[in-house]
Amino acid sequence: MTHQTGVDVDYQALFQRASLAATLEACEECLTEIGQSLESVTAPADRARLLMCRARVRSNQWRTADVCDDARAAMRLFEMAGKREQAVDAASLGAAHASRLGELSLASELATKSILALDSVTDDLRVEIANRLGIFCYSFLDYDRAVEQFEASLAAAERIGDAGKIHRQLHNIADALLLAFRQSQLSRLEDRTELLDRAEVAVRRLLTEGTADMNLRSGGHRLLTEVLCERGRVDEA
């Protein structure tokens, strides 16, 4: 069989538009374009790239089950095409969304694939894969391990100098640390106030380094207020 490669599709630009699609109209426009391309493109790797673009749009729409399905299908196509790094990227996306669905067995299987390959991928992919592994841990209430993965993602984001992803990871770290502290309080474990120390450091860095728009979208000031309240500094909060 001769595969149509989809040379007329700019996958990077399409994925960028998919990432930014926020309105119903923008999402539908992207989905229509992707659907039309899927009707004509047959090369496995190119079909997988289109599915990852569609998963990105559906993620914006909170269509979690659909994102998981697209990610798993893309993973299989990337594997068929011998695209190992892209297959890991798709597996980690599937793991994050399967965990949000409470699908422990599927999420664990996909997360294991991602963990085993994490050390062999570039930092551009490591940022996303480690972040998704953090989401996997976070979804199953393992906040300590979530922090570890979010910190690994932060380190990769710092190495490539991506300010947006650095900001995202600082928020995720602070949020997970706050939840880890609350979990320890409910479990009546040892005093873990150092978690609040680390959360405050992360969120203050977030607010200092992030733009006003970034901080507005991420709710950074609300997160700082929660940390300060947990520390008993209510007037400052």
Short description:
This protein is mainly alpha-helical.
Q: What is the secondary structure topology, with strand pairs?
A:
Blueprint: H1 11-20, H2 24-40, H3 44-60, H4 64-81, H5 84-100, H6 104-117, H7 123-139, H8 143-160, H9 163-186, H10 194-209, H11 212-218, H12 220-230
The count of β-strands is 0
Tell me the number of helical segments per DSSP (H or I, 4 or more residues long). 12
Instruction: Give average pLDDT, whole number.
Output: 92
Uncertain residue segments = none
Tell me about the largest β-sheet: none
Q: Decide which structural class fits the backbone.
A: mainly alpha
Give the termini distance in whole angstroms: 65 Å
Element-level helix/strand string: HHHHHHHHHHHH
Q: Tell the overall outline.
A: globular
> What helical percentage do the residues reach?
over 70%
Radius of gyration: 19 Å
Beta-strand fraction estimate = under 5%
Features:
237 residues, mainly alpha, globular
Task: Please explain how this structure is put together.
The protein has helices at residues 11-20, 24-40, 44-60, 64-81, 84-100, 104-117, 123-139, 143-160, 163-186, 194-209, 212-218, 220-230. By secondary structure, the chain is mainly alpha-helical. Helices cover 78% and strands 0% of the residues. It is globular, with a radius of gyration of 19 Å. The chain is built from twelve helices and no strands.
